[in-house]
Fold this sequence. Notes:
182 residues
Amino acid sequence: LRGLAAVDASTAWVGGSKGSLYRTTDGGLTWRDVAPPQSAACDFRDLQAFGRDTALAMVAGEPARVYRTDDGGASWRIVLEDPRRGAFFDGLAFVGDVGVLFGDPLEAAFCLFTSRDAGRTWPPVPREQLPAPLAGEASFAASGTSVAATGQPGQERFWIATGGGARARVLRGDGGRWQAVD
């Protein structure tokens, strides 16, 4: 297991490799398998819970996608999928209904998607609005810990840690503007 999203003292979601996706509603005494159909090959590395019944489950590698449930995991729909070869999602973070999803660079550009509706839709951030990746630069997809969000709704700020190249950087998103700092 790698991903964890706790809603309150009773409800939490966990995800991991080989399609592992579970939900508890009794404080962890019992766990119910709520994995989407045909997701046995998925690696659910990051989760975001919006309440007892609503959650996002991010799959890191191929197929790089995000699932959403609004009924406690009884049904899921794919709300984001990057079909490009080599697509790899690293993490997501939200402030209220506003969030970002970051992925390793493809085609000489970072993969960054935003949502303003609690993960129902994910338009990509145009590459012209993002810093260019350095040679070998990527992020780290262990439980989505390389992506964080701060602030209040309407004043969101997003932080992304990178590495893997000659130097590590922090990407900061503030009001739709992105910059990189060594």
